[in-house]
Amino acid sequence: MYADLVAGIGRGLDISSYPLLSGLARMGPANAVQLGREIGLDRSGTSRYASRLEAGGLLRRSPDPDARGTLLSLTEDGEEVVGLLRRRLAELLGRRLVGWSAPEAEAFVAGLERFVWELRDELG
User: Is residue 78 part of a domain?
Assistant: First the structure.
């Protein structure tokens, strides 16, 4: 499904891009450790993926005013791509839920949200 999500966009996007971009959109500027914790990657993996997205003009690095580290944040183009990816994801999920009643779809979404939050709590 992620392959369909990023198809044709270019700019260094692959199936691993959505969690990183979406995480930054939720959190705002964050260092690689904070973002990695949010999306379930270690610092080196987060930094590696961030480098590709930075080269594609979707995120920027800036000095962290509170530490000696670096903050990652979305560029304007990055924010636009996140919006596009979210719309595509909604369309993809909508196609997979065709034929489900509204209560079934709502129960699925509620269960999935609970699963994600519990998993985040468990992973720290």
Answer: yes
